[in-house]
Amino acid sequence: MDLIWEGLSRAFWLLVGGDPEVVRVTLLSLQVSGIATLLSILIGVPLGTVIALSRFPGRNLAVSLVNTGMGMPPVVAGLFVTIFLWRNGPLGYFHLLFTPSAMVIAQTVIAAPMVTGISLAAIGSLNPKLRLQILALGATRWQVLWLLVREARLPLLAAVMAGFGAVISEVGASMMVGGNIQGQTRVLTTATVMESSKGNFGVAIALSVILMLLVYAVNLSLTYAQQHRRPL
Amino acid sequence: MAVTLNSGAIDTGLRTDGHKILLTVRGLVALREKLVVLRVDHLDLRQGEVLAVIGPNGAGKSTLLLSLVLLQQLQGGEIHFDGERVYPGCNPVRLRRRTATVFQEPLLLDTSVRDNVAAGLRIRGVSRVEAEKRVRHWMNRFGISHLASRPARQLSGGEAQRVSLARAFALEPELLLLDEPFSALDAPTRAALLEDFEEVLRESGVTALFVTHDRTEAMRLGDRIAVVMDGRLAQVGRPEEVFSTPTDDKVAAFVGMENLIPGRVVERRDGLALVRVESTSLQVVSEAGLDQQVLVCLRPEDIVLHSQGGEVPTGSARNRLSGRIARLIPLGAQVRVILDCGFHLTALVSRRSAEELALKDGRQVLVSFKASSAHLISR
């Protein structure tokens, strides 16, 4: 019990006092996961939309691949990226391993299939006749895409939130490709693992609290956005 | 309030403006999943007219409508719009921007009513100022101004369809296409909206193609009627023509001529054809030739019943038969009477008449109808 009490009070003072290391780790987490989520949106939303609206041979295969990607264990993504970025690997020339860039890449690999899959479902759930109506109004192909994405904006927002939520709390791949280097690639999750293994529960709890708050903030905004629409 | 039409159309406010042809379809073949679902050899749409397209479900009416805005897979044939060939070739967007389409479902966007009415205008790049003016006018015209800020999600079926109509009219199209716009509404809502719509249609003088499975809507709104059956255009003509002189048995059945009695023309006299049916002869006003195999078409409403032994008022009812009532089917204000006159005949009488004649299963009655009520189709 002493351990817990001590940990909690230590955490409280670290947070209230704005401990510089805690702040730095938090900011890096937001930066890396934020950019990864943004990249996932840029890849996933258009891709999901196009697959949802087109009919082409091999479409079923594409959808299966996306769904498989969504369920891929993050450590597998971490392994892929590590191999690619390894010294003598295909992209070793760029020396990206153990940098925040590597973490962004790994997190994008994790989040992109998720954003693609949910976008695919979101666009696919729109009334197919709506597309006909929009075309009948004289819309060009781009206008149709824009309007449909706008129609599905809430489920798409959910996709974005899900993607961000997944990568901000991801630890395995971030550890593998980042290396948890202080001041460079140490983020909330990797720092928590390290501090916990050293027995520094105060710091670990402080970092966990921040992580929980971030997750809560994401869920809160999503819930607000969805419930804000009065029921039919 | 006068409505301005855009440059391509003629602003007359009159219903049929001469016979300038706006749209021409030749040899069109429409496909779905590689199967032919519709063939239209020849169809012209005149400027300013309302063409009502009727037919049973699945006949190809909606396919025809979608074909005209190039939203349907086509194979072969030509479509000309305002003198210009639009199929094959031509960017479909350009054609669609000269038309407006209203579907059975309102198909609104998840935004306010005002933004929905403006949606088409925004897509077509109409200026802000002009768009606002039109949106205000048409929301007013369809009685939805009070709903301007309401989210489309919260509208009733009738309100939503008014928004869809306002959206279409705001585009001031050269051609308006409507695919069963009132089918999904309940009867009172439909009646109210139909009235408003008819008024707006007449006022604007826009050329329109109106698909419906409701014969009364077609008769009321259509300047001409096109009957689509089994994937082809069976008949096109004025409502009176189509409803009184259908060209084949399927059209006849669809327009309500439930009685189709096979017979043969045995004599001709003074514009009348004497048709031998079973053991009797019927007189029909017709130009059909001798010995022709025909179907005598008769509407249930055109058959008059009289009590057996009573006096049939002398008039122009040249056909008088005796028949036995096989079945009575009450339909509220009317009664359907299934008769056996040596051949099967269905009559429709008012409930009062049925009561006055004391109609009962098995009773013998006198059946009469005019020679001009019947119509002959060759077999």
Can you walk through the features of this model?
The complex is a heterodimer of chains A (232) and B (379). The radius of gyration of chain A is 21 Å and the shape is globular. By secondary structure, chain A is mainly α. In chain A, helix 3 (59-70) crosses helix 5 and helix 4 (74-85) runs parallel beside helix 9. Chain A is built from eleven helices and no strands. Chain B has 379 residues and is of the alpha+beta class. Chain B has helices at 61-68, 92-96, 113-123, 128-141, 157-170, 187-204, 215-221, 239-244, 249-254, 351-356; strands at 21-32, 35-46, 50-54, 78-81, 84-87, 99-102, 175-179, 207-211, 224-229, 232-237, 259-269, 272-277, 280-285, 293-298, 304-307, 319-331, 334-340, 344-350, 364-369, 375-378. In chain B, a hairpin with a 2-residue loop joins strand 4 and strand 5. Mean pLDDT of chain B is 89; it is low at 1-17. At the A-B interface, helix 6 and helix 7 of A face strand 6 and helix 3 of B.
**SSE string of chain A:** HHHHHHHHHHH
Cα distance, first to last residue of chain B? 52 Å
Total helical segments of chain B:
10
For the secondary structure, the number of strands of chain B is 20
Q: Largest interface, per-chain counts?
A: A-B, 20 and 24 residues
Instruction: Give the biggest beta sheet of chain A.
Output: none
Q: Which regions of chain B contain 5 or more consecutive residues with pLDDT less than 50?
A: 1-17
Number of helices of chain A: 11
Helix % of chain A is: over 70%
Radius of gyration of CA atoms of chain B, rounded to a whole number: 25 Å
Low-confidence stretches of chain A: none
Shape summary of chain B = elongated
- Helix/strand structural class of chain B: alpha+beta
